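Submission checklist for the structure archive. All mandatory fields must be present; incomplete records are returned to the submitter.

[x] Identifier: ABC-2 type transport system ATP-binding protein
[x] Organism: Salipiger marinus
[x] Residue count: 310
[x] Sequence attached
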Amino acid sequence: MAMVEVEGLRKVYDGGFEALKGVDLSIEKGEILALLGPNGAGKTTLISTICGLVQPTSGAVRVGGHDVVRDYRAARSLIGLVPQEINLEPFSKVLPAVRFTRGLFGKPRNEALLEDILRRLSLWDKRDTQTRALSGGMKRRVLIAKALSHEPEVLFLDEPTAGVDVELRRDMWAIVEELRGRGTTIILTTHYIEEAEAIADRVGVINGGRILLLEDKKRLLSRLGRKELRVELDTSLATLPPALQNRGLALEDGGRVLVHTYDTAADRSGIAHLMADLRSEGIAVRDVSTRQSTLEDIFVSMVAKQEEPA
């Protein structure tokens, strides 16, 4: 059984704006899913609905087999949420704030656990500090500590490292890896696509309230990935010779670089043929390099394709 199940989820806000348009999603226990999408794509609405913070217009959502509407308390007890917005009680001290959140979920006191969480987030020496005196990065760490305080089985990270320091980002991903090892299911939205590429098992692309793609990260990069061969020429070309035209080649950097794009899954790359033609044309090559498509390239391409006029 999947840990998170979303079926035909729609959300229409007052005024008629349809934020989610029939979303289907299934997330397995212990999986890390990265959800990518531009601002206004529906990422936060989807997370908020799964967490029971937004009432769905139609469709069903289950977490650990519990319906988030009919069995809200049981479903919510399984979820930890790190929201985008920093909203902490300014006069509360760090340790009591984290302890209070654990108590809200009906969990017994466990000071050893809370100390461990705070130490992993470099917050232990700030445990008696009021949150209003913390930096923005430290406040973000407190949010993460609060989300982990009741030992959730599902952790939602909504842009968790946006605008934070490199040290927190490194600590955050180390904790994610540790939680994965414990079987925690993790769903994160991020604009740092290189982080999704590094840590996620699957990648989802959402735009306009619809899931455009949901696929294993490695399979996705293999299936949609393109590779680019950049040939630096000894002398610049004003135009391509006839033998090199109509082959999808491009000149860049004032004619000093010849760009050949090919499919990594194709039987033949065409590189050997290209290099032979360059020699035949008397075109000297100074250097050759390659560049692999990234998730960002794929994401931008998919969103742009969806937004093209019919």
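[x] Structure attached
Curator remark: The mean pLDDT is 87. Residues 166-181 form the longest helix (16 residues).
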